[in-house]
Design a protein that fits this description.
With about 160 residues, this protein is mainly beta. Helices cover about 10% and strands about 35% of the residues.
Length: about 160
Amino acid sequence: MHVGKAVFGLSPSAPKAAFIERLGPPTAELPLRQGRRGLLYGNSLLLAFEGERLREVRCWKLEQFTEDLFLGWLQQVEPKADMQGFVVDDRLRLGMPREQVSALLVGLEGDGDERSDVRIKNGQQLWLGYGPAPDYHLGDDPGQQVLVSISLGFAAD
């Protein structure tokens, strides 16, 4: 995926049917807020559409979803794709240490806090969420944060 340019090899303005043709049938289609619909692929990738227009792509590490969040049902959904293959701009991927991610964000407009970063790249909002490495089986140091969620928004034309 390239911010502002391509999502799974398609233009962000491609119709929903083109994404279904490219990725195959979704695991589920979900109603979202503000009348949007989400195509859930496996248990860790969601494409959010407003009508036929892609508005957001979200991916996440699954370990954080529990019954307490009322999303425990996702644990029962078979993974559909290897999310390690979900890469933004050929560099940014789930599981990366926050220090490496921060180096890639230098020069981009935006801000962050202890759990997330929000940046603007090519006119698109990029939201990155972090969690402790041990919670995601990505290390033993509870002080090391790793990238566990990526959301990329697409502005209305």
